[in-house]
Design a protein that fits this description.
By secondary structure, this protein is mainly beta. The protein has helices spanning 2-14, 41-51, 98-104, 139-145; strands at 18-21, 25-31, 59-64, 68-71, 75-87, 90-93, 106-107, 114-115, 117-135, 155-156, 158-161, 164-174, 181-197, 212-228, 234-236, 240-251, 256-261, 268-282, 286-293, 309-325, 327-335, 348-363, 367-372, 379-391, 400-404, 406-410. The chain folds into 2 domains: 19-218, Single-stranded right-handed beta-helix, Pectin lyase-like (Pectate Lyase C-like), CATH 2.160.20.10; 232-428, 3 Solenoid (Pectate Lyase C-like). Belongs to the glycosyl hydrolase 28 family.
């Protein structure tokens, strides 16, 4: 009987995160993965419940060991306080039952989008030591979606929500199910040394696989990111202020994207004080671009909308190294319901005080930039200085700066109107 009780105790402790004291005066939970590839989500939830909130003056720890944790159900770990999360192994999402995720993914609070993991709190560190991995096993989703945009309830990988004074670093994200990371209703967050690769192993199209997005977020820093994907690399969206993106490299995809924004009819939104610097863009669509919805409301989010207003201002892009990108920079106010065109002159969302400098490298054509602004609220004060790019196809110097409804340019002259409408829903 005693032996049986001992064995039962070992089993219980081995399959749960058992708390122990740590040097910071708090408690530590070491998460034990469920055996035989079973769902570890309950063990993870229990660890956050036990160790996710430290007592005043202390710090708790949650430790994922150097092993693989299968995750087959949603995680909701918010309200954390002063906790250090260590990921030494791999969190691997099980997508064998896509209907489960479509029925149970958690709302993330914008555009009717949802997520596989909602995490948040104050004083969080999430450390991956350069090898801790989120593997979304997204090929199952890429094949299922087959290029359809914003499929309802397709889950994001990780949503950082209601988070303040926190650091996420040294993490790897592979094949995210949809958007990789969303930072929403959060402030004072540093995200650095992050690697994202959302390319498909089967050749399926990888739409909506953004590296990171910010929404209702202030003072967010992205430093030393590498993103290889089929969509936006990092995208500050509605009510993103004081955003810094620096020392990063982006491959394929669309590049840095501000927006889309202005999607909600008669709703004010803003993007302010965004700085992007020391960026290398490899075969992306743009080095960076800004996109707003038209002023005509059609359909419903996330694939429809329009008619919103507000402004994007004090946007700085400097020291961009371009390697065979399509265009150095672009603005489009033509984003429209998927498959629709027109109404490019109707947006009341204003874009002003945009500063670009030190762009060098190669682009695929003769158009340096296209500024497709709205006649209902023209862009103003757009500055481009020290642009030295070469056409990668013929080694000539590109000379076209296409403009529509732009007031006051500095450092360049508009050479003519845009040569085609750019709806952000158009595939790369």
């Amino acid at each position: 009987m005693l032996l049986l009780l001992c064995c039962l105790l070992v089993f219980l402790l081995g399959s749960h995160a058992s708390p122990a004291s740590n040097q910071a005066g708090g408690v530590t939970c070491v998460v034990k993965a469920a055996s035989n590839g079973r769902d570890s989500a309950k063990v993870i939830r229990d660890a956050f419940k036990t160790c996710g909130k430290a007592k005043s003056g202390q710090r708790n720890r949650i430790v994922f060991e150097n092993t693989t944790y299968t995750i087959a159900s949603v995680l909701d770990t918010t309200g954390l306080k002063d906790v250090d999360i260590e990921l030494h192994g791999t969190l691997s999402w099980n997508n064998s039952n896509l209907n489960y995720w479509l029925e149970n993914s958690l709302p993330m609070g914008y555009q009717n989008q949802s997520t596989a993991w909602r995490l948040g709190g104050d004083g969080i560190t999430f450390q991956g030591y350069g090898s801790g991995t989120f593997n979304g096993n997204g090929d199952a989703w890429y094949r299922f979606i087959n290029g359809r945009s914003n499929y309802p309830r397709r889950p994001h990988q990780l949503t950082i929500t209601g988070t303040t004074n926190s650091v996420f670093e040294g993490l790897i994200f592979l094949q995210s199910q949809m958007w990789t990371m969303t930072v929403i209703h959060s402030s004072n967050v540093l995200l650095q040394d992050i690697y994202v690769n959302n390319t498909s192993k089967t050749g399926a199209p990888t739409v909506n696989t953004d590296g990171a997005d910010t929404i209702y977020a202030n003072n967010i820093t992205f430093r030393r990111w590498t993103v290889d994907n089929g969509d936006d690399a990092i995208s500050p969206k509605a009510n993103s202020t004081n955003i810094l993106i620096e020392d990063s490299a982006f491959y394929r995809g669309s590049g840095i994207a501000l927006g889309s924004i202005g999607q909600y009819d008669d709703t004010f939104e803003t993007i302010q004080n965004v700085t992007c610097r020391n960026i290398t863009s490899h075969r992306t669509k743009y080095g960076a671009y800004i996109k707003t919805w038209t002023g005509v409301n059609k359909g419903y989010p996330p694939n429809g909308g329009g008619g919103g207003y507000g402004y994007a201002s004090n946007l700085t892009f400097e020291d961009f190294k371009l390697i065979d990108v399509q265009k150095a920079f672009s603005i489009t106010q033509c984003t429209n319901f998927e498959g629709n065109q027109g109404d490019c002159d109707t947006s009341k969302f204003n874009i002003h005080d945009v500063y670009l400098s030190d762009f060098s490298g190669t682009i695929r054509g003769d158009v340096v930039t296209t500024l497709q602004c709205s006649a209902a609220s023209p862009c103003r004060n757009i500055q481009l200085l020290d642009v030295a790019v070469i056409n990668s196809s013929n080694n000539t110097t590109p000379r076209q700066y296409q403009c529509d409804s732009v007031k006051r340019t500095v450092g360049f002259n508009c050479t003519g109107p845009p040569d085609g409408e750019d709806n952000a829903f158009k595939k790369l």
